[in-house]
Amino acid sequence: MTSKTKNLPAQLTLPAPKRLNTAWKLRLKGLALPVLIILVLEFVVRIGWLPSYQMPAPSEVALTLRDLAEGALWKHISASLLRVLLGFAIGASLALVFAAWVGLSREAEAYLEPTFAGLRSIPSLAWVPLLLLWLGIDETSKIVLIAIGAFFPVYLNGVAAIRDIDRKLMEVGQMYGFSRARLVRRILLPAALPGLFTGLRSGMSLAWMFLVAAELIAATKGLGYLLSDGRETSRPDIVLAAIIVLAVLGKLSDGILASLEQRFLAWRDTFNGQSAED
Amino acid sequence: MTEHLLDIRVARKTFATTTVLHNIHLQLQPRETVSLLGPSGCGKSTLLRIVAGLEKDFEGALHNNAAQVAFVFQEPRLIPWLTVEQNIGFSDDGHYDKAWVAQLIEEVGLGGFSQALPKALSGGMAQRVAIARGLYSRPQVLLLDEPFSAVDAFTRMKLQDLLLQLAERHAIALLLVTHDVDEALYLSDRVLVMDNRPSSIRQELAVDLAHPRDRRDPLLAQLKVLSLTELQRAHVI
User: Fold this and answer.
1) Nearest CA in chain B to A190
2) Cα(B74)–Cα(B148) distance, integer angstroms
3) Residues in A lying within 8 Å of B, measured between beta carbons
């Protein structure tokens, strides 16, 4: 038996060169459209079809980005990153606690769900003035806003994930006379994991959205501040540079969650899409 | 009375306003194989769930003298994130008896698949794992709810033989729910033909044949005629 399990990875790595090849091909396919857009933009701006004070050439944006990277960019990035991570951590962990509570107990659902449904129907940005009044314009109000933004997607997906669990799997545990805690640990939690990850990933993207909102309104540093600074000084290249950095950071944070998801959920038997060759 | 492994009396079992089971008395002896034969929806699965203790809301009494009762569901119901090995030892969390699990894997003919995930198994293989999981707790009674209804006819025959072999080897009594007349007759010492809803036991057929049996045995054919007649009278077919 052990020899068999030892052989398994070897068999999987055997066609590696070919798999690597297709992975690169996939990446190149994904790059085609952005590269094309950049080239067209560069051309259109260079020959003067678009005024460069409105739409700077991509090369110009790249130069701005380099200048920023030598100066203030890191200060802005670290300020924003800290806010997002703190806000997301607070919002998501509160959401997980409440999702587990409401998902597991009908009683808790009866008490809590109507309130959450009501709060959810408030567009989260409507909290901004109140937060500014109550908490001032410093860090706390921004982090609370981001936490509110991250809370609802995680909470909603968490409750749905628990309620979507196949009753038939739960019955297997009940058949063995598992206690409630053991049912949660052995069946409920792992079975709810796919839904929880969906919630965490959309919570993360909302956290970035609310970060920008918070920083656009009142901040002295951060990527949102860079955006409004670029607008006030009529520098679209700075605005675009900040947008690019936000995109990269958003993609990175989502990528981390996605790779965690891949690792924990390798057991899922799901449709992965068809390639052109199939 | 004490020599019975199981003694179940169901005076009445209702879902909302419909009565599904009515006046049923069922006993199971050690090492005996008994089939409940009837159409889908006649309440035989409910009866099995009552025996398993999954259904507690009924009028009647359940006397269980077996130390261990295990259940094999209609679908394999394997835990998708656990390997074959972990699924079989599921009831003992992480510290299951590895040697016993390995032996069961060999006995159900899945040698080499201990580390496979359920998504890599065919329907027949998954049901073998489910049977092994049922055997893990060393039960004296194994309850099976239409265990082979989702696999093809040839796989079904193989799994039936496997089940008989395992029951013989581990001295297990089987209580089986099925809507397959041939399956009921081939496997069982007694076949209980169920009435339509509200269902009760309409007739008991003793299958007086030694194991291993020949599927072509004329007695099986005779009994099939009998049970089909009985099912027709019950307006089941």
Assistant:
1) B81
2) 7
3) 1, 4-5, 8, 168-169, 171-172, 174-176, 182, 186-187, 190-191, 265-269
User: Each residue of A180-222: pLDDT tens digit?
Assistant: 889 988 999 899 999 999 999 999 999 999 999 999 888 889 9
- Interchain pair A172, B114: CB under 8 A: no
Segment B164-177, tens digit of pLDDT: 999 999 999 999 99
Show residues of chain A in contact with B77, CB under 8 Å.
Answer: 168-169, 171-172
Same domain, A23 and A141: no
What is the predicted ipTM? Answer: 0.81
Domain boundaries, chain B: 31-46+67-194+202-233
CATH 3.30.360.10, applies to B31-46+67-194+202-233: no
CB atoms within 10 A of CB B218: 8
Beta strands in chain B (DSSP E): 6-15, 18-28, 33-37, 59-64, 69-72, 141-145, 173-178, 190-194, 201-206
Containing B45, the helix (H) or strand (E) segment is helix B44-52
Q: Which residues 6+ apart lie within 8 Å of B130 measured at CB? A: B72, B73, B76, B77, B78, B147
Q: pTM for the full model?
A: 0.77
Provide the 8-state DSSP code for B149: T
The minimal CB distance from B112 to the residues A4, A187, A190 is found for: A4
Total structural domains in chain A?
A: 2
Domain that holds residue A23: 16-50
Report the gap between the CA of B8 and the closest CA in chain A (Å): 18
Q: Band the pLDDT of B53: cuts 50, 70, 90.
A: confident
* Out of A4, A172, A186, closest to residue B77 by CB: A172
Q: In what order do the strands lie in the sheet with B173-178?
A: B69-72, B141-145, B173-178, B33-37, B190-194, B201-206
